[in-house]
Structures are given as C-alpha cells and as structure tokens.
Amino acid sequence: MKLLLVQESDWLKRNQHQQHHLAELMSLKGHEIRVIDFPITWREESEQVLWSNREVYPDVKKIYDGAKATVIRPGFVHLPILEYISLMWTHYREIQQQLREFEPDVVVGFGILNSWIASRICGNTPFVYYWIDVLHELIPAAPFRWLGRLMERATLHKAIRTLAINKNLRDYMEDLSGKRTGLLGAGVSIFHFNKLNTILNRETMRKAYDVKENNILLFFMGWLYSFSGLAEVITSMKHRADKVKLLIVGDGDDYKRLATIRRELNLENRVFLAGKVGYDEIPKYIAAADVCILPAYPEHRIMKHIVPIKIYEYMAMGKPVLSTKLPAVISEFGDDGIVYVDKPEDMVSASMDMRVAVDIQKIQGWGTIANKFETILKGLCLKL
What we know:
Elements: E1 2-6, H1 18-28, E2 32-36, E3 51-52, E4 55-60, E5 69-73, E6 76-77, H2 82-101, E7 106-109, H3 113-121, E8 127-131, H4 145-158, E9 161-164, H5 167-177, E10 182-183, H6 195-208, E11 216-221, H7 230-237, E12 244-249, H8 255-264, E13 271-275, H9 282-287, E14 291-294, H10 309-316, E15 321-324, H11 327-333, E16 338-341, H12 347-351, H13 366-383
Parallel strand pairs: 1-2, 1-7, 2-5, 7-8, 8-9, 9-10, 11-12, 11-14, 12-13, 14-15, 15-16
Antiparallel strand pairs: 3-6, 4-5
Helix pairs in contact: 1-13, 2-3, 3-4, 7-8
C-alpha cells in the first residue's frame, strides 16, 4: 500500500509518537510512506525568515533500522496567524499534488487543518482520522479552540473510519461526532523496554547519578510542559526525607524553570535534569528508577483524555507508576500497576511506601499494534 499521513506537528524534531511507530513499522512491511508535516516550533529557530520554501526529506528514520518515510514540508509565512492562513493554502496544494502523483491507497489524518482539507479533497481515496490527543485543546490561542473543535467534528463526519488511542478519547470522539469510533491503542518496543534491561543497567545508571540502594529514585521522561506538575514535585522534596531523589529525562517549555527551582532549593544532588536523550538510550534511564511518575494536573484541559505512551514503557520494564488522578489513565488501567494521588505535591511521600505488582502481560508490542493497523487499512482498500 501507499500511505499518505498528514499532521501539523514536526515529524523530524518532536518525540516519537504513535504515528512514528506505525509509519516506520508499515515501511518495514513493504508499504510506501509519505508524510506532510509542519514545523510547529518555527518561532524557536535562531534564524528567522519571512517565508520558507517547500522542503522534501527522503528516507527519514526516527526509530527502526531499515525503516524510511518521505517527509514533505510545504512552505508557509513566518508570521503569527498568517502561518495558519498560508498553511491552509500550501497544504491544500500539496495534498492535491500527492493525490495526483503519489496516488495513495489510504490517507491518514493526525492533525486539524490539513486533516480537514484532506477529508474534503481525497475523493475516492479512503480517509482515516486517527486521534492520539484532543488537538484543539493544544491550540495556544484560546479563541481559536472552538474553531478547531468545529473542524475536528466536521472531519470526523467525513472520515470513512475513525480511530482513538485510548478508551477515554474514544468516548469523547463518539460524543463529538455521534458515530462509532474504533480503538487502536499504544504499544511498546519489546526489544527496548523489558525487565532484562533493568537487570543489566540499573546498577550502572544509579552509580552514574550517585543513587544509593537505600535511595528511592523517582523517574519522569517526556516533554516538560508547564502543567507537568514537576515543579511541585521538586519543591515538595525540600521538606521530605533525603532518601528520595528524582531523575528527569527530556526538554521543553519548563526546563529552565525546573533548573532554577532546583538551584534555589539547593537540590542539585537530589534532582537530576538529564535533558533530551536518544530513543535507544531511554530504557537505561528507566532501569535506574524505583518508581516512575506522571504528576500532571488532572484538571488541566490537555490531560483529560490522554494516556501518555510513557506509561506503557514504564510498565513493560516492570516499574510501578505513581500518577495523579488523570481520568483517561484511570479508565485505561484502573489500579493495575498504578497508584494514584490527588496532587503532584503528594508524590514524594506516597513513593516511600509503594507496594505495587505490575502485570506486563497486558502490554502489547508495537508489532502487534502495527499488524492491527495494517489489517484495518487493507480492509478499507478491499471495500473500494
């Protein structure tokens, strides 16, 4: 099959998500993959220009050796608001061109704007709308979120098949669209995330950060959003037993603030900011942990309907998870391997008495998820 994926996030720079795993594994199965993306963090570039030209990145691989995808980045205006207006035009033209020249068997949408466009112009080509997040809630400007929601609803109605990454998100999509939505959950790379990795790397990684066996090492990885709850966890450590330490892997919006809090509270020997780490290295860091944490604010609009993939990876390595009471996480896992607290500040004290068994049999590998994805897409092609 030829698959065209469309999204408004940066395929090259952002962390590995559901679409990266599925696209690359489908590539390894012999399918041809093209992606239309958007450099969402363009404001952070040191060299600013008014207009960027169309760019094509062939043979892109982020995770799996031998996998490849062609990433196409249409041009756009580098000005607030005008970036989205120009995106509508250039992505419309690009999707038209790909439908004409590439002739995809299926188009899969992961965004808002270009998914809305694709759902309207793909003609007889099946369009699948796959949600891994409530994207309109991620729009920075609040007045535009209602418009994003309207576009998502319209795209859901146009799609021949809709998919959600977790149960809570599926229920939200069905309420929004009034139509049945399929469930295709997240997985883990069994080769990378396993208990053997913990056995091999635990002692080495703890020694690298001077973590003793009688210490309790909390672990977090991922993009550091301001609502991640990590600032509260770090602040609460000042008044807790010295035996608890925290290792954070990742970068993002809140990195500098976390570094400042750590310095001001004199916690450099207990809070470790490792920065961004390559995908292959992440299991070594998880191996060092005693408890993995997800301290995000449960009431935050962005966190209501998502289950971060990191939870599956923590559990695949046999690590207990300490989470705030996030609705989607509770719906997905219940009490299996997870302990819940009311707020981030409670995590340090709760971690000192963790007794949780993790059932790794419930964790599916990405290969299994990719097989299901392939079956769904092939089924759509056969119906034509």
